[in-house]
Amino acid sequence: MATKGKVKGIISNLVTIEVDGPVAQNEICYITLGEQRLMAEVLKVTGDTVSVQVFESTRGLKVGNDVEFTGHMLEVILGPGLLSRKYDGLQNDLDKLTGIFLKRGEYNFPLDKEQKWAFKPLAKAGDQVEAASWLGEVDENHQPHKIMVPFVMEGHYTVKTIAPAGEYTIEETIAVLTDADGNEYNITMIQKWPVKKAINVHVEKPRPFKLLETGVRTIDTVNPITEGGTGFIPGPFGTGKTVLQHAISKQAEADVVIIAACGERANEVVETFVEFPELEDPHTGRKLMERTIIIANTSNMPVAAREASVYTAMTISEYYRAMGLRVLLMADSTSRWAQALREMSNRMEELPGQDAFPMDLSAIIGAFYSRAGYVYLKNGKTGSITFIGTVSPAGGNLKEPVTEGTKKAARCFYALEQNRADRKRYPAVNPIDSYSKYLEYPEFEEYISERISPDWTKKVNDMKTLLQRGKEVQEQINILGDDGVPVDYHETFWKSEVIDFVILQQDAFDAIDAVCPLERQEFMLNTVMDICRHDYNFDNFVDVSEYFKRVINICKQMNYSEFHSEQFEKYVGELNNLLAERQIAEA
Amino acid sequence: MATKAFQKIYTKITSINKATCSLKATGVGNDELATVNGKLAQVVKIMGDDITLQVFQGTEGIPTDAEVVFLGKAPSLKVSDQLAGRFFNAFGQPIDGGPEIEGTDVEIGGPSVNPVRRKQPSELIATGIAGIDLNNTLVSGQKIPFFADPDQPYNQVMANVALRAKADKIILGGMGLTNDDYLYFKNVFNNAGVLDRIVSFVNTTENPPVERLLIPDMALTAAEYFAVEKNQKVLVLLTDMTSYADALAIVSNRMDQIPSKDSMPGSLYSDLAKIYEKAVQFPTGGSITIIAVTTLSGGDITHAVPDNTGYITEGQLYLRRDSDIGKVIVDPFRSLSRLKQLVAGKKTREDHPQVMNAAVRLYADAANAKTKLENGFDLTNYDERCLSFAKDYSNDLLAIDVNIDTTQMLDVAWGLFAKYFKPEEVNIKQELVEKYWKK
Q: Does the distance separating the beta carbons of A301 and B112 come in below 8 Å?
């Protein structure tokens, strides 16, 4: 019999309950308040007193209200039909909710029970299977959506029967499995999984080594992220976090994109709702919404569900990864999630850590990031979850607990800088402070050498050295004055400006420049590094800046022109003539 | 508040501190209102039969045998068309000597709009102030604060914006307003003859600070009534949100909560977001636009209040005194309206985005020239022209006393371009130059 309880105390959304039976940590319960049932999660158990966080407003709740425990943790429902949907943090389909305002205690089933799916069996009677084995597939928005043995089933099973190809709803039995003792299990297209537990159905999780192309030069060329890699984007407000994140989610070469809008502006989510059904996926030409799932828990939605939203998003990502797909998960912003943790920890009167965040914040962030990754599945196929989170550091100060905790967990760091944003140098990613640890992986170097060219990483490193050198020289010029330094200092500085304007800066609102495919990035880096490698004839510093401004202008026009179009080649010709004017021939 | 016959009266208070008092009671709901010797209070904590009440007016003079009556409901506001033209205190009670409002009783701080039911904002709000309309265009359904030092004339600018914006209703939420500012608003609205469009909820510095916590929710509940029920365009003015945050800090401190950055409660972001996110464009035509004021201390925007606000709102506006022309201007560099691209060039003339950018770029060149001048370097002819342009630009467009429509603003800008520059120095698309350049 399910455990029951009665409300004993209320402080905001933290409620204490006296229970009459066993409860589990993180178990879900429902508090009855008149007609409404409010969902809550167990946070702490002391004897028969249980503290729960309620995912809704607790207004009007009274001592003595009845509570019913469910016996399970917060779960999501996994099955075909998740793509293109817009959920709240608890996986309620927002489109199915009635009325303009969100009603307290209104929950719904996240999938369509009526829709029929064209099922194709992949397994046959007599096959040995285990959790996550592929039994069949349906076509979900042109993705091969695998119907798998539910992840919760432990041990080995034999396929007794499997449904023939045909149209089925998600609740119809598509296979019957038997265990060693002859017990039968009916399998449908849907299964449940508790969000706080990682789905581990792979045999191996190697270090990620394949480039995930995003079409953003300052990422792909300068600090690449990998399929199954992790990255984070911290930045003060107004530095272009959202634009950069939208660019990545629109352009990345992924099969499934999941966006967790966690505690951010509602109008930004609306923008995604409006744009994604219109925009095309640059890789397949289909509408972006077809490959996207949005988990929206905006800043005015219940705080406790914010934490749930990122776990819901991660669990759905893991489900698609187990099908052998490449998933990109974006969370904006993980700071809001951390703040939700802080609010609860505070109400529970836990001893606070730095900035009043809970002591285990960095461990929680680390555990979450570790759920991403590139995996080999048991059938030899691969799948990946690439995770990029944004961080909103208080006061733009990167020495705060969320940023520091994330820095330990994520392998790529894209530091948005106020100074670059003020000078309209977008994307405002600081090339020197940012890093990608994947550049140091030998397996990545091997991969990228094959995909682009063997000397690629060397070129990228040379470019970074030039940027660093340019910055140092600029500081000296600022101190000593334009004519207080040798002319070749100006040359060094302007070469770094060429890199900045042509490679680092990119116009996210220009139809052509917004997406820069890898071969084009290679061409531009080669062009720019070729410019930087040469020495030039200059008599005075005024000539240097004027000359390089012309170089930059031509290169920018190249960025705005279709690759290898007539116009593009015209600019290449112009550039070569201009370079010939002053370049000193190599000895 | 008259007590009713069936209501139970408690008379034994067990503890009292500066903002809250506790007593033993049963059958009490969370967030419920109560009166303590006639003073309004709200339930903030329940532990068994121990009830903690936050007393809005402060606990001064409350004896341990005070009469406590629970009212059985959360704070609410009676809404109807009768709200128009009236002034209320933080509890929604008239303070203008007029009659009580008759209408539906609605709990304040109601639920959020389902994000899929929102419409993308797309209607321009014209204010006549070029520093806003030209450079930082406002859109209905937007939320944007002025970041201002206390000595800047933000209330005057806000009153002007309110009067010129073609809103059906203007709702003023005054938190910690000085009495002078309150009277200023009252006079301005009175003189403009627009009182029937205005609803005011006012907490002045003479009222207890904790009462302020009710003001934004009161104002927004009234706003939702007009926007949802009447499909009206509602403009909500909240001044000053820093006073609101200070009141939050006071309460959380009294309740022994652990403070986070700048002594503010850890929930500051959520508390502010809950208010600002009420700004919305409804598909049925109604909208709520929020213009707020966040006062800064010494221009510091890294303080927890402006910092959290910046992450929530869709841009911010800065005022600055321009000593060259002796007027207050809307700072074109630091101000930002994140929604302007939804209307600029679409709802306004095609050349709007390019003219706006070109003018700001030339103004930046002027700032560089000024630095050169201050450092004792020689100015080029271009520098000189930039400086002259900047002075005119500041005076004719950025100053807050400007009141013209957007097309006129664009024409003025083209006029200034032609006066000081050659077309190739302005960097605007050729076809626009051909069409609009003043010969």
A: yes
Report whether A77 contacts A11 (CB < 8 A): no
Domain boundary among B338, B370, B386: B338
Indicate whether B1 pLDDT > 50: no
The residue of chain B nearest to residue A13, with distances taken between CA atoms, is B30
**What distance in Å separates the CA atoms of residue A165 and residue B88, rounded to the nearest whole number?**
69
- Tell whether A17 is within 8 A of chain B (Cβ): no
Cα–Cα distance between B36 and A357 in angstroms, integer?
36
Residue that is last in its domain, among B315, B338, B361:
B338
Q: Return the residue in A90, A265, A419, A482 with the most chain B beta carbons within 10 A, the one to mutate for interface testing.
A: A265
Show which of residues 5-34 on chain B sit within 8 Å of chain A, judged by CB atoms. Answer: 26-32
Range of the domain at A23: 4-72
pLDDT tens digits for range A321-354: 999 999 999 999 899 999 889 888 888 888 888 8
Are residues B134 and B181 located together in one domain of the fold? yes
pLDDT tens digits, B57-87: 888 999 999 999 999 999 999 999 999 999 9
- Nearest-by-Cβ selection for A339 from B269, B280, B310: B269
Dist. CA B389–CA B417, nearest whole Å: 8
Touching B: A residues 91-120, CB under 8 Å: 94-95, 97, 99-104
Closest CA in chain A for residue B266: A343
Give the number of A-B residue pairs with CB atoms closer than 8 Å.
Answer: 158
Quick: pLDDT tens for A550-566: 899 899 889 999 999 99
Same domain flag for B135 and B51: no
Closest approach of B302 to chain A, Cα-based (Å): 4
pLDDT at residue A191 above 90?
Answer: yes
Q: Is the Cβ pair B47, A103 closer than 8 Å?
A: no
Residue B149 at interface with chain A, using a CB cutoff of 8 Å: no
Contact A356 B282 (CB under 8 A): no
CB contact under 8 A, B120 and A303: no
Residue B252 and residue B323 share a domain: yes
* Tens digit of each residue's pLDDT (9 = 90 or more) over B33-45: 999 999 999 999 9
Cβ separation A266–B118 shorter than 8 A: yes
In a domain, A199, yes or no: no
Give the per-residue pLDDT at A587. Answer: 56
A476, A571: one domain: yes
For chain A, say whether B266 makes contact (Cβ under 8 Å). yes
Chain A CB contacts of B304 below 8 Å:
394-395
How far from B156 is each of A116, B162, B185, B191, B209, CA to CA, in Å? 62, 10, 8, 14, 23
Residues A475 and A519 in one domain: yes
**B433 exposed, middle or buried (CB, 10 Å; 0-12, 13-18, 19+)?**
middle
Specify whether A142 is located in the same domain as A177: yes
Provide the residue range defining the domain that includes B418: 352-436
What residue in B sits closest to A348 (Cα-Cα)? B257
Q: Give the pairing of strands A256-262 and A292-297.
A: parallel
Share of chain A above pLDDT 70, in %: 100
Cβ partners under 8 Å of residue A531, min gap 6 = A495, A498, A551, A579
Q: Is the pLDDT of residue A301 over 90?
A: no
Q: Residue B113 and residue A16: Cβ atoms within 8 Å?
A: no
Q: What is the CATH number of the domain that holds B240?
A: 3.40.50.12240
Is any Cβ of chain A less than 8 angstroms from the Cβ of B113? yes
pTM: 0.93
Point out the domain boundary residue: A445, A474, A494: A445
Q: Is the pLDDT of residue B135 over 90?
A: yes
A237 and A314, same domain (yes or no): yes
pLDDT at B419 over 70: yes
Mean pLDDT for all residues in chain A: 93
Q: How many domains does chain B have?
A: 3
- A375: part of which helix (H) or strand (E)? strand A373-377
pLDDT number for residue B357: 86
> Residue A62: phi, psi to the nearest 5?
-125, 160
pLDDT recorded at residue A28? 96
Phi/psi for A380 (5° steps) reads 90, -10
Name A469's Cβ contacts closer than 8 Å, sequence gap at least 6: A492, A496
Residue B2 lies in a domain: no
